[in-house]
Every structure is written in structure tokens, then in C-alpha cells.
Amino acid sequence: MAGGHTNHIDCTGGHCIVILVIAAINFINLSTAQSILRAKEVGVRKVLGSSRGGLVSQFLVETCIIVSAAMTLALLLAGPSSRPCMFYSAGGPAKPQ
After folding, report:
1. What is the CA radius of gyration of the chain?
2. Whether the Cβ atoms of residue 18 and residue 10 lie closer than 8 Å to each other
3. What is the maximum span of the chain, computed from C-alpha positions, in angstroms?
4. Which end is more exposed in the chain, N or C (fewer Cβ atoms within 10 Å of the end residue's Cβ)?
């Protein structure tokens, strides 16, 4: 990057990685808690004759829907919030000579 401060970019990248790791741990924690709560539902479905494959596919489809909704929301929020970052990384407003 010509004339930029690469240490700021490295620092921001490090923050992004930490946030992504925290989000992944949070997702795993919430998924585990939800699966414990849904154990009763799985038991009822098995008693009513649902197959193992049907249950697995139901949970995978539900997870894909949730992840897709979260990704869409994240992209919608990231677009407007990234414009100020690009503005300041480009040097901000033009300085009079």
C-alpha cells in the first residue's frame, strides 16, 4: 500500500481474527445448548418413526438456513460500515496545498 501504515492493517487483521474465533466459539456453544434442549424432540420423532437420516438432514437444513441468514445480515451490515474505513485508509479528505 503506497504511503499507508501497514502496521494499522496488521492490527486490524488481528482484531478481525480474534472476533471470528470468538464468534465461532459462541456458535458452537449455542448449537450445543440447543441440541441438549432438542433431545426430547428427537426422542419423540424417533418414537413416531423418523429415520436417523431424516433427523440429520433436518438439523443440517436448519443450520444452513440460520448460517445463511446470519451471513446475509453480516454482509448487509459490513457494507455501510466499511465505507468509513476505506475513506480513512485512503488518506481522509484532501489536504489543501
Report:
1. 22
2. no
3. 79
4. C
Closest Cα to residue 35, out of 60, 68, 70? 60
The per-residue pLDDT for range 8-63, each reduced to its tens digit, is 777 788 888 999 999 999 989 988 888 888 888 888 989 999 899 998 998 899 88
Spell 11-33 as b/e; 16+ CB within 10 A means b: eeeeeeeeeeeeeeeeeeeeeee
C-alpha 67/C-alpha 50 separation (Å) is 25
Burial per residue of 63-89, b for 16 or more beta-carbon CB atoms within 10 angstroms, e otherwise: eeeeeeeeeeeeeeeeeeeeeeeeeee
Mean pLDDT, rounded, for 63-85 = 84
Per-residue pLDDT, 3: 55
C-alpha cell at 12: 486490524
Q: What is the pLDDT of residue 13?
A: 81
